[in-house]
Amino acid sequence: MPRTTIEEAICPSCDARGLEYTTEMVDLPYLGKSLQILLRCLTCGYRHHDFVLTEHREPTRYTFTVAKGEDMSVRVVRSGSGTVRIPELGVSIEPGIASEAFVSNIEGIFVRVERVLDQLFRDADDGEVKGKIAAIVERLGALRDGRGAPVTVILEDPFGNSAILGEGASHERIPDDEADQLKTGMFVYDPGVMEHKGEP
User: How far apart, in whole angstroms, are the C-alpha atoms of residue 109 and residue 166?
Assistant: First the structure.
């Protein structure tokens, strides 16, 4: 893998200058050729990983209903520009500037949500808020065990670099006006204007 040190780049973790930049072409199952990107701070070890599909893709929305235990193994490819929503639970995972790509499954998504909810539960002072968080965690646990009411996992990507790869997953093109409202977690160049979409 070719490695380059970007001397002027500032680490978002420790503010040191100089990030090691590594790229490699990989072949992702179902999605084809992709450029894998790794940024690493030589001072504190901070790492940021992402991948970019080399083929042009349209803005895409994948939808999958999680209803039984077997659904936990359905593969999910989420790029750094992908947004994950579980509307029945009020969950929305939007990309920020440090968002990383990952290849996981539905259960992996649930585990990530549970980790965040666990932190929110510990930080909450309000008993009612704690109760609502506990109810969501309980429902996620029931779904992982093949019980409980189904939920919908929605994966949206304005660059078309994310996907839910399983039987029963539907996908559609996102209309341009809706795609423009999605956060991307990265700098996007638009003729003469540099803008940042997404939140840290």
Answer: 15
**What is the distance, to the nearest Å, from the Cα of residue 112 to the centroid of all Cα atoms in its chain?**
10
pTM over 0.85: no
3-class state of residue 97 by DSSP? coil
List the beta strands (DSSP E) in the chain. 3-10, 17-28, 32-41, 47-53, 60-66, 75-78, 83-86, 91-93, 102-105, 151-157, 163-165, 170-173, 186-190, 193-197
How far is residue 15's CA from residue 192's CA, in Å, rounded to a whole number? 29
Tell me how far apart the alpha carbons of residues 20 and 136 are, in angstroms, rounded to a whole number: 40
- How many CB atoms are located within 10 Å of the residue 30 CB? 8
When mean pLDDT is compared across 9-18, 22-31, 66-75, 121-130, the lowest value belongs to 22-31
Handedness of CA 186, 190, 194, 199 (dihedral sign): negative
Tokens for 165?
A: 């790869």
